Amino acid sequence: MKKSKQIISPLAPKQYKRNWPTTHEANEYMKMRASQNRSFSKNNSNEKWMEDKLKLTDYKWSCQSRWGYRIFDFWCHYLGIAIEVDGKEHIKRYDSYRDEANYWKSGILVIRVKNRNEDDAKEALAIISKSGNWNERR
Fold it and tell me: 41 near 51, Cβ under 8 Å?
């Protein structure tokens, strides 16, 4: 069986290293997780708050979209930008490692916004308006 590539960084704690889901079982598991997250996010007022902000961009945003082993809160395929709405449960060191790995691996820009933080949301919208499309970063 062929092993998938891993991005290993000295910043990555050992328990957080993940492979790309290459088996049928791993793919099905990630589909199930994305479905669960979509169900949960329907009642999440923090994500609804950010969704309302993203409607102002005139781009198409998908909720709880998968990219490999990542499930992003919001994803715009044209821009190659993911938005993560962060609560207190997020681990900053782990999140920054995964965000950097995604950027270097695929050109995906991950923008983090704290729950209901208007300054973070304004900064995210400014980054979105200035960013080029995804093909320019790949």
Answer: no
- Supply the pTM of this predicted model: 0.79
Q: How far apart are CA 49 and CA 115, in angstroms?
A: 9
In contact, 117 and 53? CB cutoff 8 Å: no
Q: Which two tokens stand for residue 77?
A: 């395929």
* pLDDT tens string 8-62: 444 444 444 556 677 888 889 888 999 998 888 888 999 999 999 999 999 999 9
The domain limits of the chain are: 45-137
Helices and strands (DSSP H and E) totals, the chain? 5, 4
- 45-137 in CATH: which number? 3.40.960.10
Residues in the chain: 138
Q: Are 91 and 120 in contact (CB under 8 A)?
A: no
Which of 84, 71, 136, 77 has its CA nearest to residue 110? 84
